[in-house]
Sequence to fold (956 residues):
Amino acid sequence: MNDAPRTYDVIVIGAGPVGENLAERARAAGLSAVIVESELVGGECSYWACMPSKALLRPALARADAKRLPGLSRAVQGPLDTAAVLARRDDFTSHWKDDGQQAWLTSVDVDLVRGHGRLDGPRQVAVATADGGTVRLAARHAVAVCTGTTAALPPMPGIADINPWTSRDATSAKKAPRRLAVVGGGVVAVEMATAWQALGSQVTLLVRGDSLLPKVEPFAGEMVADGLREAGVDVRFGTNVAFVERDGAHGEVRLGVEGGARVSADEVLFAIGRAPHTGDIGLETVGLKPGSWLPVDDTCQVTGVDGGWLYAAGDVNHRALLTHQGKYQARIAGAVIGARAKGEPVDETPWSPYVATADHAAVPQVVFTDPEVAAVGLSAAEAEQAGRRTTVVDYDLAQVAGASLYGDGYRGRARMVVDLDRGHLLGVTFVGPGVGELLHSATVAVAGEVPVDRLWHAVPAYPTISEVWLRLLEAYRG
Amino acid sequence: MNDAPRTYDVIVIGAGPVGENLAERARAAGLSAVIVESELVGGECSYWACMPSKALLRPALARADAKRLPGLSRAVQGPLDTAAVLARRDDFTSHWKDDGQQAWLTSVDVDLVRGHGRLDGPRQVAVATADGGTVRLAARHAVAVCTGTTAALPPMPGIADINPWTSRDATSAKKAPRRLAVVGGGVVAVEMATAWQALGSQVTLLVRGDSLLPKVEPFAGEMVADGLREAGVDVRFGTNVAFVERDGAHGEVRLGVEGGARVSADEVLFAIGRAPHTGDIGLETVGLKPGSWLPVDDTCQVTGVDGGWLYAAGDVNHRALLTHQGKYQARIAGAVIGARAKGEPVDETPWSPYVATADHAAVPQVVFTDPEVAAVGLSAAEAEQAGRRTTVVDYDLAQVAGASLYGDGYRGRARMVVDLDRGHLLGVTFVGPGVGELLHSATVAVAGEVPVDRLWHAVPAYPTISEVWLRLLEAYRG
Fold:
């Protein structure tokens, strides 16, 4: 063991997409950087979240689209070839090997230390390596925590013994369980219910509340519930799971619901939320509480830590639990760290290159269900809570020619929230098949604060689903 | 025959989408309006262009998408059910009946006169009706010509005798010809080649020049040519058709190509361009040349006509031969006519509600081929011709995670043209499967003149194809 620490300008803990991008941006600013990772370089997104989940979902959604098209529908009535879908998923996760990601780090000249990184006082990180040793690192300028989150499990007696699925199992499973119970009503729950139902499981979705996707416009969750039911998912609201038991490690799972109902399944996925991955990263050595989210300012600097050397980007700061938004923060934090290291001024006014303004105003999200949900900015309720004077405009996507051409029986809805004082949009939500790529038009409009008067000159091509923009503007004009 | 003319504030000649929208906007401004139509209310777009062509293409593109997805691909190797696709197309054209459109006119309180409308001196229109009569109309404020275009045929001896297909036949045919020759290399040619090849025809595409889609970025035409060839279309460049002959009215067609080659087919589609539908609308009575395009200013007022009472919107003014852009002009012209009738000021500065600025800066177009082509604003060549100081940024869409998830072997490309002096985008082009709905993001950015610095805050959702925006910005940053 070498007691003299290796010194870098920047130390990044966690080599998911966020950590990778932050390190790369720090390097681009001329700083030396090292990244610490205890698992696979590439992180949750590459191996157990975005990539595998979308690889599972894409054929399911393409089949749902094809089913709505006379002339093609008859050919796709049969089930998906599950083995082929899983094999493709395996390719997208690089078979859970990180050689490619490691090579990328090398290509951008960021050092990698494999092992469990813990803060060890200001600007110090101790990495416990697999061989039982410790690598000590010291940062001249900054340490950035990019450790993300882990799946939360309910505090239920015996839950650890029943081998529950979390998002990791749901995205990496090697075969479809005959019966899958999914506990939760958020994005992971609805996406995985969609995927495994299409891949051959009989899915039961157990939702504690009375709606799905509670963070977006209410009609989104309603339409997704309809879609899940039509795909064959047994969707049950108001079901609070009281206990769970299993016959042996891999036998039948039985869930007991408050009120007495019982659900049997071959696997159970708990998708009830995320917990910050900060329980064992030495937060206590710098005066922070282990297991807590790390609050940051708009430059991604952790608040409440002396010396301004600690940053946190991505899920762990709890601003927006989305890979793309974490990468956005990473680009900004990397630039901030670079500028501050060189003593350059850091413009902290909104929308400057050094502040993550979009975290407040324009966080986009696509939920890859059937129908898809695509939302950016504030919902109507959020805008009202924020005290904005708004008009909320809705439009039935089925009335748009491009949507009805997209597939027979098209159902969807669009909403835009107009800020009456500022004259631009605060938020936009689209629900419907094929709306995922439409979202970025809204993201540009919201983040760009494009005046509604100007949006009239942004003509949607006919006949695309995008024509809903014209309909929304016409409805707003009223 | 009643010699006293019926007087309206506004007379619109041509009840396609453009005429309909213009009349509706004039009504909304408080003016009385009448619309004259000799064919079906709803126009080319509804019956012989956008709607039927996209109804033919959508199943073909959905099948192409499905073929690129392991787990689904095996199911869709067979041909489309052509009869089912054609039946769906028939539904989208309302079986070539215009009751619904007529009812819409009634609902917005616009009168309809069926018959052939001709200008008859300033502010006068004479409509020759089917019963041999004439309805005389007089306009208090404006006459708007919205007669669109017709398919151009080459000046070739005997062409009228061989029953050639034009876009109308190609979109309304009741069965797939065994062999279809398509002459042309523009949008109609490549879309109809795509559709009919997928519907069972063996298509030969005869292109006079050496590229397809000459009006957009060159790589678009190249990728579409590759896609057509892979679908089985025989694409031949540099083929100038010298003569055409046919055995009887419906026998085999033989085309002779300069240089000696012969092509045999069961039908031949000429898609070589459009001609203004102004040959017999009385232009000579107001000092204009029959058969000419009608040049307009940015308020859509025809230039060179005394009194400022004549407007032209849509294809016929030759600004942008696209339904959605014509409707945009119609909204503007209707508002202009309304304001001028009331003596209200008409702001003619760029991007005002009264000028069609987007016609110069931000015309979007989607070509529904495999791959799709989606472009808005200026191409690199157009920007250079316009003397702008630009940087052109390209990105390979296959490198975008969302694109590779969309389908195996994804091929596509994106380009953005940055105005270095203004700091915003002049044009964007996407080519690839599934990019159609992505276009509106670019249209908002270009029409909104959103600064590139701000576009960094418009975060694309991961993993969508839209992430190409981030890659383009990164490539621009360099």
In short: The first strand of chain A starts at residue 6 and ends at 13.
